[in-house]
Amino acid sequence: MHHHGGMTQLGPFTLSNVWTWSPDWVFLIGSLALLGLYAAGVVRLYQRGDRWPIGRMVGWVLGVASLLLVTCTGLNDYGMVLFSAHMIQHMVVTMLTPILLLLGAPITLALRALRPAGKGRPRGPRELLVALLHSRYVRVVSHAAFTIPMFIASLYGVYFTPLFDFLMQYRLGHIFMMVHFLATGLAFFWPIMGVDPGPHRPGHVMRIIELFMGMPFHAFFGVAVMMAAHPLVTTFTVEGAPPGTNLLEDQKLAGGITWAFGEIPTAIVLIALVYQWMGSEQRQARRRDRSEDRTGDAELEAYNAYLASLHKRDRRPGATPAAPAAGAAGATPAADVG
Fold first, then answer.
1. Is 81:236 a contact under the CB 8 Å cutoff?
2. Nearest to 260 by CA among 92, 103, 99, 102
3. Which of 46, 103, 153, 265 is the right S-S partner for 157, CB 3.0 to 4.6 Å?
């Protein structure tokens, strides 16, 4: 099952073979760091007496778990020799992991957990994070005009050019590709999910449009891979693949996986967006009610103040008694005064 020195032949591509521990140390250490930093932030909030929603913690942990599942299991070994296995990795890392991580609201957590630097001290990590969020670089990289083409390019640009074969020759190339897929997914879904603060906060309708702008390209790519009559990449060979693999059939499967997978994140994000939308509508309604309460009170207070001013005038000698408004709150007949 594992590579020892040379390329060992992998067994058939089955769940039991995929479901084995085969750590890629870069991703294992990275994932543990992500969990540790997040936990540290949550602990600091709790020590301060602040709460942090359980749902967000669950989202983050599931996000990291999804990353570990595709990089530190047998799937990663198959991903080196089977297009279909590689595509499962790619889809999870670019479309599932980012959504789950973003549901964890890591930027919000960081901004709340990091202590501001005191007066006269150099800028601390919190100030640097705020500066980064406001930087032109992040403004550009998180703008839909950048994220959508980037999201599309990391499908067509990687597999329909020699780039994939070039990167797959090297371990570092494979790691770089996975990190790139993750970063692309995070950049694409960050403004759309709108859980964390960022430079671009499009309205709910705009976010749904952005989501649906990327998806047809994604689906079309999957179909194009399914329809291709010859192998698109040279990395996957009959020699490397499990015995009896038909490379073209496996490529068709890879395309099918890509095409089908597009629906999953779309559904998750849409549900999340609808919830947020309903929540913001309720918040706005509550805000309107509150502001009506406030202005209502203000009108009443103004009226009472007006009546009080009339009384004062009545007490001045020679003033003509003003007739009080009938039944008005706080109005006392002028005759009763003094």
1. yes
2. 92
3. 153
Would you give the DSSP letter of residue 51? -
Amino acid at 296: G
The model's pLDDT over 282-292, given as tens digits with 9 standing for 90+, comes to: 888 888 777 77
Alpha-carbon distance 220 to 246, whole Å?
Answer: 23
Q: Two tokens at 269?
A: 């994000």
User: Would residue 9 be called left, alpha or beta, if left means φ above 0 and alpha means ψ between -120 and 50 degrees?
Assistant: beta
What is the spatial distance between Cα 153 and Cα 113, in angstroms, rounded to a whole number?
36
Indicate the pTM of the whole model.
Answer: 0.79
Beta-bridge mates of residue 73: 21
Instruction: Find where tokens 């329809």 sit.
Output: 227
Asked whether the beta carbons of 105 and 195 are under 8 A apart, the reply is: yes
Q: How wide is the angle at C-alpha 11 spanned by C-alphas 9 and 14, nearest 5°?
A: 145
Instruction: Report the distance separating Cα 320 and Cα 311, nearest Å.
Output: 11
Task: Tell me the per-residue pLDDT of 22-74, one tens digit each, with 9 for 90 and over.
Answer: 889 999 999 999 999 999 999 999 999 899 999 999 999 999 999 999 999 99
Residue 329 structure tokens = 């709150």
Q: Sign of dihedral through CA atoms 178, 182, 185, 187?
A: negative
- Alpha-carbon gap, residue 75 to 69, rounded angstroms: 8
User: Alpha helix locations (H) across the chain?
Assistant: 15-18, 25-47, 54-71, 74-79, 83-91, 97-103, 106-113, 125-134, 136-141, 144-159, 163-168, 171-193, 204-227, 247-261, 263-315
Q: How many CA atoms lie within 13 A of 61 on its CB side?
A: 8
